[in-house]
């Protein structure tokens, strides 16, 4: 497999021994409880992470910094994924099973998709079109 710079990738199989040899490059902080999802924007420059503390954090990956932290105490936050716009995400509620289209720039839930009867365990975006 080729990397973006043309070099070859080296894959390492998972084992307890090689996991002990790995080290963290960067730790993004900002949550009071465990993280339940992460997603990178398509250009790799932004990261969104949601947490069981009903918050979403947005990070600049190149600058290794927290840009914004938002809360949704009414519906909770899980399965946060970027849309085709870095200022908008989809995420699911862990309280009433809705999917929210959330503008992170204005901090507004623009639309809620209702109808699920149980916990939503994953959300994916079609990258070919909106």
Give the arrangement of secondary structure elements.
Elements: H1 16-21, E1 35-40, E2 46-51, E3 55-60, E4 65-71, E5 78-82, E6 88-92, E7 99-103, E8 108-113
Antiparallel strand pairs: 1-2, 2-3, 3-4, 5-6, 6-7, 7-8
Give a short summary of the structure.
The protein has 130 residues and is mostly beta strands. It has one helix and eight strands, in the order H-E-E-E-E-E-E-E-E.
How are helices and strands ordered from N to C?
Answer: HEEEEEEEE
Helix content: under 10%
Low-confidence stretches: none
Class by alpha and beta content: mainly beta
How would you sum up this structure, described in words?
This protein has 130 residues and is mainly beta. The protein is built from 1 helix and 8 strands, in the order αββββββββ. It has one helix at 16-21, and strands at residues 35-40, 46-51, 55-60, 65-71, 78-82, 88-92, 99-103, 108-113. It has a 4-stranded antiparallel beta sheet with strand order 1-2-3-4, with no helix packed on it. Strands 5-6-7-8 form a 4-stranded antiparallel beta sheet, with no helix packed on it. The longest helix is centred in the N-terminal third of the chain and has 6 residues, at 16-21. The chain is globular. The two termini are 29 Å apart.
């Amino acid at each position: 497999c080729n990397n973006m710079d043309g070099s070859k990738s080296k894959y390492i199989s998972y084992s307890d021994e090689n996991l002990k040899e790995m080290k963290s490059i960067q730790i993004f902080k900002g949550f009071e409880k465990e993280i339940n999802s992460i997603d990178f924007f398509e250009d790799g420059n932004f990261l969104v992470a949601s947490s069981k503390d009903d918050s979403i954090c947005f990070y600049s990956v190149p600058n290794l910094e927290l840009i914004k932290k938002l809360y949704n105490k009414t519906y909770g936050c899980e399965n946060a994924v970027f849309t085709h716009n870095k200022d908008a995400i989809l995420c699911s509620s862990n309280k009433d099973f809705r999917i929210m289209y959330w503008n992170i720039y204005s901090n507004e839930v623009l639309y809620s998709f209702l109808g699920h009867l149980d916990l939503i365990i994953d959300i994916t975006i079609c990258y070919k079109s909106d």
